[in-house]
Structures are given as structure tokens and as C-alpha cells.
């Protein structure tokens, strides 16, 4: 079973990520049973059937806008944001928008080309679950990745996880 880092712990992940190929139409798709993240196009086509179902989340690709999902956030326990390659950072902004502008409280999961070196910064933007590349990390490396979430004790900049910059939080001598 694949592993997931969620809320600072390594856990088994039973959720499938449904990916469509070019020949599949979202409207004609048979949805799998169990916990699943469906592409945004499938969510739009089957929203009436999927809304409020436990274990069903939506994943957005980097070119898709979170604004289009804003009206449905109350019905979604989890949203996955895809990193098609590690150099594509649009999902950082999407996570920050979900947390700040839309007040989303559910799980925000990083999927795709997710690397250990990015976890701390993803967490600062609002991600709370990380699905690292399958087969790239063993259990010990995943535990080290969890420890890396604490690499910096006091970040300088303001972010989703700490809205006050360090200079506003620091006590100054008179």
C-alpha cells in the first residue's frame, strides 16, 4: 500500500488517484469504489452523485483554477493539487488561495512530482498531506522527510501557517 505523509506522520494511503486518458470522457466514466481523488472534469460531470460522499476528493492539475471549485468546497473533505514536475510551482499558490481566500479547512494534498526538499515550503502554503513519488523513498527516508518539516524553527516570512513575519513576532530590547 502506498505511503502518505499527513499531519506530520507517515500513514498507509488507501486513496486512489483517478487519471483519465485522452480517450475517456468524464461523463461516461464508471467511478471506482472506495477512497478516490477524481479529476476536476469528472467532478464537474458527476457532482450530483459525488457530492458529500465520504472518501471522495477532487484533484486539480496545475493549469486549473481553484476559483472554479470555490462553490463546492463545503462538499469536499479533501483536495489534491498536482505538481506535474517539481519546477512547476502553481500548486503552491493554489494551496495558499484555498486556505486564505476561501477559508478551506479540509485536507490539501500534494501529488505528482513531490520531493522531500519541497515539503517545508508546501506546508507553509497550506498543504497538510504529501504523496511523495512512488518508489523513490523507503520507510526510513519517509520518516526523515517528516523530520524535515521541522528544519526551520522560526521562518522569517509570513505565510499561511504563520501570518506574522518574524520581525513582528520577535521581542526587541529597549
Give a structural overview:
With 174 residues, the protein is an alpha/beta fold. It has a single domain, classed as 3-Layer(aba) Sandwich (Rossmann fold), CATH 3.40.50. It is 25% helix and 19% strand. The protein is built from five helices and eight strands; from the N terminus they run E-E-E-E-H-E-E-H-E-H-E-H-H. It has helices at 40-50, 90-100, 119-125, 139-148, 166-169, and strands at residues 3-6, 9-12, 16-17, 36-39, 56-60, 78-83, 107-112, 129-130. The protein has an eight-stranded mixed sheet with strand order 2-1-8-7-6-5-4-3. The longest helix is centred in the N-terminal third of the chain and has 11 residues, at 40-50. The protein is globular.
Provide the fold topology.
Layout: E1 3-6, E2 9-12, E3 16-17, E4 36-39, H1 40-50, E5 56-60, E6 78-83, H2 90-100, E7 107-112, H3 119-125, E8 129-130, H4 139-148, H5 166-169
Parallel strand pairs: 3-4, 4-5, 5-6, 6-7, 7-8
Antiparallel strand pairs: 1-2, 1-8
Structural class: alpha/beta
Could you name the ranges where pLDDT drops below 50 across 5 or more consecutive residues? none
Q: Compute the average pLDDT.
A: 89
Proportion in β-strands: 15-25%
Radius of gyration: 17 Å
The CATH class turns out to be Alpha Beta
Shape by Cα distribution: globular
Please give the alpha-carbon distance between the first and last residues. Answer: 56 Å
